[in-house]
Amino acid sequence: MIIVVGIVCLGLLPGAAGAVWFGLSPGSFERRAAGPWRRYRWRRLISRQWQSMCRDARLAERQMIIRRTLQGERQPVEVWRCPRLQQVRASAHAVELIIRARPGQTVAELEAGVERIASILDAVAFRSWPVSGSVITAELIMTDLLTTPVIASMPEAVLVDGVRLGRAQSGRDWWLPITGRHTLCVGCSGSGKGSILWGICAGLSPAVHADTVRLWGVDLKAGVELAMGRTLFSAFAKTPDDALRLLAVLAGILQQRGEVMAGSVRQHLPRPGDPLHVLVIDELAALTAYAPSEIRRDADRLLSLILTQGRALGVVVVAFVQDPRKEIVAMRGLFTQTIALRLRSREETVMVLGEGMAQRAPAHRISPAGPGTGWLVEDTGQVDRVRADYWPDPLIRHVAHHYRARAVVDVSPASVPADDLTGDLTDTPAESATGRSGRRSRVSRRAGAA
Fold it and tell me: Is the pTM higher than 0.85?
């Protein structure tokens, strides 16, 4: 009896020690015990069950071959030909598989099977990308790190090339490129577009205060959203007429900057006084689909000009919209990177992200309980599931007060002649690329700016 009790105690001792360790230092327990064991278990499971998983995922092919028995007789035998699992790498929350297609199998067929493998392993999410003509990398997210919202923090660094918006599904920071990119964010009501918007504007705010970046805001929903951080914007429009004048001024800057750069440099480099201009449009459809026809016509022309010419000239667009239909966002193909937040249907996911993306980036399956969660499609075609940090109103107001824009651009009717809205922009009196003005300067210093 004593021996039995002793054996039971010895069996319980490791579990009790682990529980005490976890209670005293959960971080250390995760790094030194739970994490390594979990990674080992994932690698071992996948390596040992690979052929079975390939059959269940319809990646294997059944084939009949002839083998000789010990007696020398020829006998038909059924074998399974599977893709080759070249490598399994496990991190704290994900598993990465490098898979080579079997002879006669395409990369597209491999990628189609990754979703089934993810289902077999009960992965939270997955993504895959080709490495060569016969090899893909598949990333399976085994632990969902995006369920818990994170409150944004006060930005400090002067950033121009990109901003940190939140977290990617692998646990890495989510950095969104800004310079040289036009960004379209699509999501239904309540999907968390405000977290993306303020993540970008507030993330750029130290550069705004240094006049290395200038924000131009268009909010035709009575200015309710952007007015929260009004002092971050050098120019602001909340009516269709104001928006049209703002676009005309920005198009004039674009044209003058192009004349200065022609034959000198091919890519604009932002610096104080010669900034990166970022046009932020909250609800693009209010300008391009729901405004009066004359406004829509001129806005489409000016916005298309900015989208087609602005990237190299240091003028980029960040636009937000709820309805992704082509008749609502006719120029959506001109945006170079797309963020799909929660969408209403599979059809909307295809509209926003393109054919074949409903499986790779199922934005229509995002839970309403996770605002700010979405799928990012970069101009390289790579996809990633991300979640933006949440920006509460007091923090937005604090950032806007602390990092207010130094320059204010006048887009009033007196400053923008009516001809600028419909005619040639060659003589538009907008600020030039070098900080000098045309016929007269529209740029002034905001009172109190240091």
Answer: no
